[in-house]
């Protein structure tokens, strides 16, 4: 096998690390650390270089997941499969995600341990039809919201990163052409699924996702994209991107593979969601083939935004529940003037409001997701759920910090991180004013 430049560099570094002179000079520890990070980066580079989505000649016909049969009653009970998924993800959130959340927030990336643990779950399988290697039998927005809730209970930043490929797979499943589904969906069912993300937000005041500054121009060979995107989750590492741009006066989505000419990224750190490694994405005359346009004329951008809103509502509910679960024992154990502070009426009322608002967010979101799952009109219900979550998520984060007093301000307690993450619900993707 012909050695690659990365392989030669790593081989030389490993030989140097084995030299006994390093012990005499006291350089072994620092060089071993360099070798470790170099090896890790090298294998990541090779993995990205080897990721290729080949065009399919004998592609399968387009597969659209059916809706559930409408029911007469709004049933809040979970199915056996949903209960199993919920229990499994809650254990993952408690055992793996939450202990790693603080370090992920500081480092601005998810640890390999968490990535390995979550990849074993195969979230992409729940978004892909059986014909392409998945296990999805029908549209399941309720299950998607439940997944978002449980992951966000562990940490919203990590949950946002984990749900990004899941959301891309869902969009291609729902609106992709037969060729696009055959080309991309099987990869999401592999043992090492692609890193995928969606780019909608743009760095401008009062951003409206329905009025995009990023433009797509039709050319003789396909399309050309120009514009600037912000807060793109995992954008620097993504193998596949869904980029929103205005085409012929209306928003559309384009499938863009990593490595195309004219695609540049730079870090875009914010006050929250730091673990999701957001970046700014600049598109400078990015040329795409005609089949890069997601879907056909039946593509519904409003429905696409509604699906994203429901997932963000799920993230807000999960994080709000985490705040509530944390402040109750804290206020019962924290004493002032000889008694627990929860005995104070003002504190008790504030905690009660947290519970009421969290359940209100959950009920509206579940109702909207249930209607979407049954193929019923859902834009009104989704808008109400999004508005309530936008407002109450900020309030719950603020009151969570307030209930801890000075402890709510320091990083020793996770509430300050949850406060920062919850602010993203009301600011990204149009926020309160969209």
TrEMBL record:
Its cofactor is FAD. It holds the Pfam family Acyl-CoA_dh_1. The keyword Flavoprotein applies. It comes from the Bacteria. Signal peptide: none annotated. InterPro entries: Acyl-CoA_DH_CS (IPR006089), Acyl-CoA_Oxase/DH_mid-dom_sf (IPR046373), AcylCo_DH-like_C (IPR036250), AcylCo_DH/oxidase_C (IPR009075), AcylCoA_DH/ox_N (IPR013786), AcylCoA_DH/ox_N_sf (IPR037069), AcylCoA_DH/oxidase_NM_dom_sf (IPR009100). Belongs to the acyl-CoA dehydrogenase family. This is Acyl-CoA dehydrogenase. It comes from Marinobacter salarius.
